[in-house]
Amino acid sequence: MNSVASTLNRVADMEFNNQISVLTPNNWNTWKHDMQVLLMHYGCWQFIVQTKPEQPDEEATYKEKLDLQLRKDRCYTLIYTNISSDLKNLITETTDGVAAWRILKDHFEPVTRARVIQLLDQFFGTKYQPGEDVGIFISRVKTAATRLQEAGHKLDDLYIGFQLIRWLPQEFQSTVQQIYRWKEEDFRVVKIEAELILEANRLQLMKQDLEKAENAYLSSFTSKKSKTLPGATAAAHGNPNGKNDYQKKSGKVFNCKTIKNVKQSIKTIGPCYVCNKYGHLKVNCKEKKSLQKSPPTVNETFNTEFDKGVWVIDTAATSHFCNDKSLFLDLKPITNMKMSLATEDKSCPVEGIGTLRFRVKYKGSFHEITLTDVLFNPKLRRNLLSGSRLESKGAHFVGTKEIRHQRFCHVNNDYLVKTSKNDSVKGLPRLTDNGKTHCIPCKLAKSKRVSFKKTGAVRSKRPLELLHMDLCGPMPTESQGGNKYFLSIIDDYSRKVTVFPIRNKSDVFHTFIRFQKRAERFLSKR
User: What biological function has been recorded for the protein in this entry (predicted)?
Assistant: First the structure.
């Protein structure tokens, strides 16, 4: 029995040991906490924090001395077996677990000014993610503050509290304003954390109550409607194959097999005219309420597609980048380098570095260019040539006057030529005035619509013979009735103006038919 129990314990220890990932250059923070739990499981964490004596007492038995030595050895073996092969060289010169831990900590957490600045940037960059639990967000902020404290830079409660309430969503703004009015002695992290968690629980409870009320309303609405429509009795008695197992809604017949279950019957309501989802009507749509609260905005999106084989000269790039592995003459794989992107402070790993050669066309002939230390990243949408590195090698860029015209925000060509002659811009080549530049964007921007010529006379002989109609909209703000457009109809003979507010552009034809019938009845003419 003892052998079976020991075997099961060894199997459980192996499974527990395999649950954590090995240490790499990018996961020190998570690996450190996982390894702490693993060492605590084996009773070895006491050596790291030095709460256990290094040497046994003189009165200790041989078994106690052996157990202490085995746990000290296990402390080192657990650390050594859970790091990658690239990092094992850091601790190969020692067999002490405490020394190995200190070496790794000094390597990944150096107490330097540069690291403190990096941790400060990470701390103030910790933002609340949409839909994130408030408790998790508070934990991330406190973890960033703890790393700064371990690096020798302890933050006051003022900065930690400010970061806790800085990026909270709109529903927390009342609580944030209340916290700002606190006295200085009350502005503490513990109190702010408790206040935010209480507010998050209150909002969660309010959300649940609203959902219950909405479900109750929808279920009552469905039950009332099912009683008034034909086929409700048959459906209520569970007759899925009966002739009356259908309901009529807005002129359409639909199956009502789900009337028996309240939750399933909610699915038969809809679709909503705002979000096109089932389960609710337009009057109860949450997206409609959010759209009404949001201010009117104008959004523009420009999308430009590039071929992945195109090379773009980037004056801000510090190195050359290529996304095609087949273009390299030689390629050396690397794993410890990342490239920083120009959007949202994101980074992307670089997979290799090497040399490539390609041909360029200049003045009708082709020339070969060899680039060294080119970084390889297959996820790039286009290849990049570093302008600073090319200029350091003595290369220069030749562009036409049309390109300079576009780079200087489509400035007048006369101004561009004068700027070149007066040497007002450093690096601008000598340009000559050889006629006007045919710039299509400039022509489109300066074009204007020609107005209609006034006739000055009535062209019709009786009312309703000739109508002038114009549709205006959509307006940035809806009317109280929810209208975004208005249709104006002017009778050419009588000059009578009639204006109809409408909701959608598709309602123009029906509005005109209604106007025509009313005008014909009024004039008794067709």
Answer: The aspartyl protease (PR) mediates the proteolytic cleavages of the Gag and Gag-Pol polyproteins after assembly of the VLP.
Name the more confident of 442 and 217: 442
CA distance 100 to 58: 27
Alpha-carbon gap, residue 504 to 481, rounded angstroms: 12
Quick one: DSSP state of residue 270? -
Beta bridge mates, 468: 490
Return contacts of 229-236, CB within 8 angstroms, 24+ apart. Answer: 231/256, 232/256, 232/259, 235/259, 235/260, 236/260
Is residue 168 within 8 Å of residue 176, measured between CB atoms?
A: yes
Which strands, in side-by-side order, build the sheet including 352-362?
A: 311-314, 383-386, 321-322, 365-376, 352-362, 328-333
Other Cβ atoms less than 10 A from the Cβ of 123: the count is 20
Burial of residue 279 (number of CB atoms within 10 Å: 0-12, 13-18, 19+): middle
β-bridge pairing 383-386 and 497-502? unpaired
pLDDT at 497: 92
Per-residue pLDDT tens over the stretch 483-523: 999 999 999 888 899 999 998 888 999 999 999 999 988 88
Q: Which of 103, 215, 119, 214 is closest to 163 using CA atoms?
A: 119
Task: Report angle CA 442, 443, 448 to the nearest 5 degrees.
Answer: 120
Give the Cα separation of 474 and 505 in Å (integer).
9
Rounded-to-integer distance, Cα 217 and Cα 223, Å: 10
Helix (H, G, I), strand (E, B) or coil at 469: strand
Cα gap 371→389, rounded to integer Å: 10
Return the structure tokens found at 345. Answer: 């402070």
Q: DSSP letter string over 494-518?
A: T--EEEEEESSGGGHHHHHHHHHHH
Whole-model pTM: value is: 0.34
Helices (H) and strands (E) in the chain, counts: 18, 13
